[in-house]
Structures are given as C-alpha cells and as structure tokens.
C-alpha cells in the first residue's frame, strides 16, 4: 500500500523547560547526552534559548523563553516542564503537511524553509493531543549539526555517553473517552495502524486501571502507544498525570540500549531514580520468561524487569518522573527479539507506581 506519510525516524524531541541551561546539565550529567548545538541571543535569537543534545540517534532540544509574555512561558506555566514537539524526519515536509492536513490534521506551522551555509531544511507542523505538536522535518539537503539558526555547542564539561541508542517508542496520555479520537487520528490522518491491543482488564491492579493501544507507522520505525485512564477503585496513574500536566501530553520516552545492565548501572551511579518492584518479582522470573542470557541476581540488584513474547524477550526499567510534577518519565529498554512493550510487567510496575502515587497523596 502506498504510504502517504513515509516517516524515516523520530527527528528530535523538544522540551519546553523553565531553565534550559540547568536541564541541559541534568541530561548531560545524568543521562550522558552530548552537547551538540545552541541557539539564543548569541546566535541572533532574542526571545528564547535552546540547547540541542544527542546520544546515539537521539536528539533532545531543551528550550526556555527569555520573556514572561512568551507563549513558551505560558506553556510552562500551565504544564510545567514537558514535551512540546515530537519531530519526525520526512523526505518531503510539504507533502507530509498537505497529506495530513487534507485528512483532517489541524495545522500549526506552515511549511517554511530555513537556510544557512550547510544547506536547507524545510519544516511544517500539525497539532496532536493536548498542546503537543508533530513537526515534519525535511533535512535531506542539509549537512549542518542540527538546523539553521543553531551554532556548534562544545563546552569543556562533557560527561561520557551511557549507551542510549535510539527512541524505541513515545507514549501519549489522553483524557477520558479520548482513546478512539486519537487512535483514529493516528490511523486516518497519519496512516498508522494498531499494533497490539490491551483491554482495561489486562492493565489493572487492585486499585487503578488504564487502557493502552499501540499505533505504529508503515515502516514500523515510529511507535506511539496511547494511554487512557480507566475506572478503578482509586485514581488511575494516567488521571494523576492529566491532573498535573493539565491535559493530555507525552507520558514517557522509551530509549533503547544494547546493554541495559551497563546503562542502568551508569544511570544509577549518576543519580537517576528508578521505580522499584518488590524483590519477590524475581522469585518466579525464570518460570515466567524462560531462559535468558542475563544473571537474574544482577537484574534483581538493578531492578530491571523482563518480559517475553512470541518473538523473544525484552528487558526494561522505568525512571521516576524527571520533574516535580508527576508527569514525564523515561523507560530504558533492551530488545532481544521481543517486539511488544512489556505487558507482563504492567501489574508489578503499576503497583510500584501506585506506591509513589500514595506517597504523593494522589491515590
Ligand atoms: Fe513504554
């Protein structure tokens, strides 16, 4: 079938944050991201400062406004630090824009060309859930570090990488009864299809529940699970997110590594906080997942979870939220054949999240 929206990759993820200089320091020190590019007053951009960090194929942009009346300041006032832009690399930005708008996307950035001595980039953008947007970035005629308007950023302070390679998936939380709206959006407007489906019985604990559907593009390179809260005895973790983010938004970024044990040791050594499941999670692990290459004792010490599907297994671990509002967090994942998302861990994981929710008085 003709893919009207060929997506080559997640191009970059842009956070709007209250203090980009300090956020950049955190992602360098704690997550091993490398300094790549900068834009701000020194490069002729007077209203904001942006730091571009990279590791493996991942690019993060951290942007802060320099004026209180800036629309970015309003975004931060409402949502706290959070993800504004999920940018997608496309071969034809104008085509991506017109094909999606024709199918009902709400435009937010008209196609425009940016040029410098390294060539040209064409960007356009559409709205998705909440205040989040998708940018379509065409960079095939560009050889610079990131984009026109940015200059190289190479400070002396540069902690080493920790083995983060690529964005495996990015999850969005949407409001009550909005699941269909947004899975339809990704299907009809973006040409995605649904990969796996769980019903709310699959993902519930004694207290709280959610629904999750995974939408994937034609090449399978871009995977966007969508969560909706579901009724339980107590408040769903998705509802807690919606309360604090003040609406739908990106819940977590899952980052792939080729050696989760080494990556997680580094992260823990650098102060990144993870959700822990009780150690009895590991008691029957081998009967649940069968033979694995890793030492269970080592996984247990680090709190790494394991799940198996028909294609293989995966290892994963989840950070606590990376800001004071209980909103955005990260997942670290290593796939050993498995193409699913760790459904077998959801119960243990959600119980761990509930303990954190209860500590915040939100359960
Ligand atoms: Fe995930």
Topology of this protein?
Elements (H helix, E strand, L loop, with lengths): L8 E8 L3 H10 L4 E6 L8 E8 L2 E8 L5 H9 L2 E8 L3 H10 L4 E10 L2 E9 L5 E6 L12 E2 L11 E10 L5 H11 L3 E5 L11 E8 L6 E8 L6 H9 L3 E9 L2 H10 L15 H5 L6 H7 L2 E5 L2 E7 L10 E8 L9 H14 L4
Parallel strand pairs: 1-4, 5-8, 10-13, 14-17
Antiparallel strand pairs: 1-5, 2-3, 2-9, 3-4, 6-7, 7-8, 10-14, 11-12, 12-13, 15-16, 16-17
Bound molecules: fe (ii) ion.
What descriptors fit this protein?
single chain, 363 residues, alpha+beta, 2,3-Dihydroxybiphenyl 1,2-Dioxygenase, domain 1, nine-stranded mixed beta sheet, eight-stranded mixed beta sheet, 9 helices, 17 strands, binds fe (ii) ion
Please provide a written account of the structure:
- The protein has 363 residues and is α+β, with helices and mostly antiparallel strands.
- The radius of gyration is 20 Å and the shape is globular.
- It is 23% helix and 34% strand.
- The model has no long low-confidence stretch (mean pLDDT 94).
- It folds into two domains: 9-152, 2,3-Dihydroxybiphenyl 1,2-Dioxygenase, domain 1 (Roll), CATH 3.10.180.10; 164-360, Roll (2,3-Dihydroxybiphenyl 1,2-Dioxygenase, domain 1), CATH 3.10.180.10.
- Residues 169, 171, 252, 254, 331, 341 line the site of fe (ii) ion.
